[in-house]
């Protein structure tokens, strides 16, 4: 007498269903297949976009771009606007005054409000018109300070070694005198 094991009986319907389902598919209905017996160039993985320098023989659904152009466009707001030589010449005495103030404060140090007031005096502006970036005030290191009216700005820096620089630049495209930090 033949004994049928209960596990085999339970697995038999699943096995028959898998065999039946595998034979019922229509390959032509599968969007991944090129049809019966066809080989197409669409065998490349989905999502592959050719590089701009590649010239595909068939049209691509991708929009290609140059990464460097995209980054430059994304950071264009950080670029200073052009200023005339006359505007630059008018601001040189203020740049010299800001450099002298920063050089004086570089070794002795100051406070944030003290630096803002000193820069405002040098640039002939109100303290609230002064832009600042940095937090080491005693001694004064790694600080960027600037301000201006109209398109012309005077920006000064004190680096980590205490060296001072001041320059006349155009206001950035998004408005402030100090360049944007960038990033997202």
Description:
The protein has 184 residues and is α+β, with helices and mostly antiparallel strands. The chain has helices spanning 6-22, 67-74, 85-108, 112-123, and strands at residues 131-133, 136-137, 140-141, 143-147, 152-158, 164-170. The strands form two sheets. The protein has a four-stranded antiparallel β-sheet. The protein has a two-stranded antiparallel ribbon with strand order 2-3. The N and C termini lie far apart (77 Å).
What is the element layout, followed by pairings?
Blueprint (H helix, E strand, L loop, with lengths): L5 H17 L44 H8 L10 H24 L3 H12 L7 E3 L2 E2 L2 E2 L1 E5 L4 E7 L5 E7 L14
Antiparallel strand pairs: 1-4, 2-3, 4-5, 5-6
């Amino acid at each position: 007498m033949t004994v049928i094991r209960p596990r085999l009986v339970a697995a038999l319907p699943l096995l028959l269903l898998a065999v039946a389902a595998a034979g019922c598919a229509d390959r032509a209905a599968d969007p991944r297949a090129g049809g019966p017996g066809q080989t197409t160039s669409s065998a490349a993985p989905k999502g592959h976009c050719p590089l701009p320098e590649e010239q595909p023989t068939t049209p691509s659904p991708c929009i290609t771009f140059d990464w460097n152009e995209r980054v430059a466009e994304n950071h264009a707001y950080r670029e200073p606007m052009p200023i005339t030589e006359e505007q630059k010449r008018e601001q040189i005495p203020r740049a010299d005054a800001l450099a002298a103030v920063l050089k004086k404060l570089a070794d002795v140090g100051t406070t944030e409000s003290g630096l803002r007031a000193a820069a405002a005096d040098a640039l002939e502006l109100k303290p609230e018109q002064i832009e600042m970036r940095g937090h080491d005030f005693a001694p004064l290191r790694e600080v960027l300070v600037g301000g201006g009216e109209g398109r012309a700005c005077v920006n000064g820096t004190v680096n980590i070694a205490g060296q001072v620089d001041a320059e006349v630049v155009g206001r950035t495209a998004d408005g402030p005198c100090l360049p944007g930090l960038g990033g997202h």
